[in-house]
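Dear all,

This email documents one entry for the complex benchmark we are building for the journal club exercise. For each entry we list the sequence lines for every component of the assembly. Then comes the predicted three-dimensional structure of the complex as a token string, followed by one or two observations. Please use this as the template for your own entries, and keep the labels exactly as they appear.
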Amino acid sequence: MCQFRTVMCYYDGMGETFESGECEVAIVFADSSKALITGTKAIMNMCETLVGFWDDAEFMPQGMRPPRPSDIDFQKKRLFSGASMLRDRILKQARVLPNNIIDVSAFMESYIDMALMEECAKELADRFSQLRPTKILTVATTGLVIAAPMAVLLQVPLVYARKQRTMVMSDYHMATYASRTQNMNKELVVSKGHLSADDRVLIVDDFLSAGSCQDALLRIISDAGAKPIGIAVLVEKAYEKGRMFLSGYNLPVESLAAVVSVDDGRINLEE
Amino acid sequence: MCQFRTVMCYYDGMGETFESGECEVAIVFADSSKALITGTKAIMNMCETLVGFWDDAEFMPQGMRPPRPSDIDFQKKRLFSGASMLRDRILKQARVLPNNIIDVSAFMESYIDMALMEECAKELADRFSQLRPTKILTVATTGLVIAAPMAVLLQVPLVYARKQRTMVMSDYHMATYASRTQNMNKELVVSKGHLSADDRVLIVDDFLSAGSCQDALLRIISDAGAKPIGIAVLVEKAYEKGRMFLSGYNLPVESLAAVVSVDDGRINLEE
């Protein structure tokens, strides 16, 4: 049921391996009558993955030099295919509606290509794993499609803000913001107790537009006394300048695709 | 970032392995100075996993007898820990609100333990993988927490029904149902084109209560000309008899935990 690009270990148990871990194994090879990749290439790929995740060159097998940082950046880009797959789908399947609303319902909204989301989650999770988030905060419903697989990869709980109170909520944090897309003021609510003062919170969402929604989430995080560590989104509408609006928070903002303009129903992505 | 219980192969590529596949490798062992499991046990576990997923005893290494079906059932139960983890959390963390509403917001609603959801998804996906679904249909927002990881495991797209139309929807299927929990009539909408006549649709949701919501989804599937293949839920409120209400559809209904009664704020689970 799973597909592996690189496989390192036999693991049986439920231990926490995110923060630290030991692994003492010799690298061995299966006698395979069908190979899609050479042995050397396999080892290099595996080491790239490990170096990428743990930022540690000790995984390099003896006799192979540790890669220079520029190599790693280059290798990382090759390791992940989420951003290029997403850009491709936006150009092929996103539609521009009146008021320049970008309709992505064919692949990442009410119809979700979860294989695509999984690849995107790998790439975004990798960009923030070294900042060691303890929780992911997103907004229901559309943010969940990327936040859920990222929470699995980063091994942290997922909290989502709702746009309305439910009857199970008694005590909650609330922040309001203006939605341009829907041309109205909106409320976001998060139950108290879902965020705590020692949390390092990564904000994850499908879109970054003018940044007012993320700003509301940041106010909720501040209200809870927690620490925000960054903002990860699938698609950034660069022309709405959300990144600039949020710059005062001095947080890393990462997107996998940036729309620079929408002209006559045509979507132009940043190169 | 991943944890493996059993590892079979080195795989590089994007091929479809869900429906069929060939794998010709000798089983080899890493020279490990730390082992959490014996070699024989490791092979048996791996074979159980493969037999469990593909229902095929050919994976047994030579000299080891194929397990009897009763063994497999027993082994399968041990393979998955989702149901027992979920039952444990319900007993420890679910609260009973007025009108006997079960509040699960501490672990599978607005605060989501995605590691728990991942384990539950493995167990539910396994129960339906042999029915070869081509799509998962759920209801926003709360159904997504289990439907998203199941879609990744079953390698199928995920479609969710919304409780209100959005501005990107032009042509859609709609069905209404009565929600007891919220004491009102509700609408579910799914864009036309998200389901097609050759789809085999697995309905996935967080709760099965009286079954009226799942019945609405089944009417939408029928409206689209697609074929429903089953219903998978995390928690079944057995006392609301949803299973009986839906029995006319003659579909497999699987839940990981069944609440038989709620007395004085105490939740009683089926043994």
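Observations: Residues 1-79 of chain B form one domain. The longest helix of chain B spans residues 39-54.
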